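Running co-folding for tryptophan.
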Amino acid sequence: MENQARGNWGSRIGFIAAAAGSAVGLGNIWKFPYITGQYGGAAFVIVYLLFVILVCIPVMSSELLVGRLTGKNPVGAFKQLVPQSSWWIVGAMGILAGFIILSFYSVIGGWAISYIFRSGAYMASGGANAGDVFGGFITSPIAPLVWHAIFMAICIGIVMAGVEKGIEKYSKILMPALVVLMFILIIRSITLPGAGAGLSFYLKPDFSKLTGAGILAALGQAFFSLSLGMGCMITYGSYLKKDTNIPTDAYWISGADTAIAFLAGLMIFPAVFAFGLEPGAGPGLTFITVPAVFASMGTIGHLFGIIFFVLLTFAAVTSAISLLEVVTAYFIDEAKWDRKKATVIMGIIIFLIGVPCSLGLGVWSNIKIIAGRDILDSLDFVASNILLPLGGFLLLIFIGWFWGTDKAIKAGNEGAKGGITLGSGYAFLVKYIAPIALIIVFIMKIMEF
Ligand code: TRP
């Protein structure tokens, strides 16, 4: 269906760049290294890779084929496949997750932009006050909100320009730039004296460090990092032309995302060990430890620090626009709004939801919502740990047990000339392996709750 009003991807590479741009974000460069650090390094990475292959690639193919077949947003897609049923609620949950994730994602994206201009502050003391610079910034009431607004404004501008002119064009420029910048930083990192300890932490598995919590964290992280479980890939798939090979593209997107997460670790761990820092430092790893690493490099660290946060901003923007696109596409299709109206109104609402997230780290830090979590953490918990895995699980159950894997395989293979095709392996993963793995995640989340 070449739906001119909604637009289509201009080229296959353009689609892959946009979808990989969605997947590659703060999840890869900020979250993946710090979780890997917390759960023991190389063994965690291996488990993460297994989950990408066994669970995430089938889910990604499923989302893309549903999107391409229906040409709709997540809610419209379910309504079209099974009219008069309640399955559309799965799509609605995804839209809701998009609202929530983007609201706090934009706050952190704002931090990334502001850090492009913060090297003067953390360089001044040779890195000794990197923690104070970070703490002082995120707890202040106004500054983070200004950066949050700037980040959201950039996303609104790009999404407003539309699928072909906006998302695809920017991703085609930003993604290769990101990879080039990462390689520069990796070379610097692995040539530091003492980097070897970081390399062996990251690359030599010690399975005795692997815990049950670590295994489950790997599954959750794979899901989040690949932008799955909220209909993001349904929406991007809806702009696909019929001659795309979906399973092959799912491999390319997952491969690119996983490679960049892996490179992020290669960029961070050698440097962290070379400077005697703590790999399990947690969410502060990017905003505190990495600036400290740059500061202790001398003048050149100034430049590397700026490059790093430009890179992080690129990655965050290409992910955030995919979240905004899901919400926007829903209001364009279902409420018949024009793109400009949908993008601006939703962008402003999402910005406003983000405001308490930011204030909750400073002036409103006494407000705790879920089990001692601040506002930002609570929204992250609800969206990432409940809505996303639940959405992915229900999509798998839908395809595996209601709509039927035969129809899915037919829809997914349509137009595939050569390359990989979906078959009985896909059906087995969708019906059994992937849902069972997700049930294990739910149980862990419930216990954590
Ligand atoms: N995957 C992105 C990251 O790693 C974040 C993201 C974008 C996302 N779109 C999503 C996460 C949809 C879950 C669902 O930063």
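Result summary
The chain has a mean pLDDT of 88.
The two ends are 44 Å apart (CA to CA).
Job closed.
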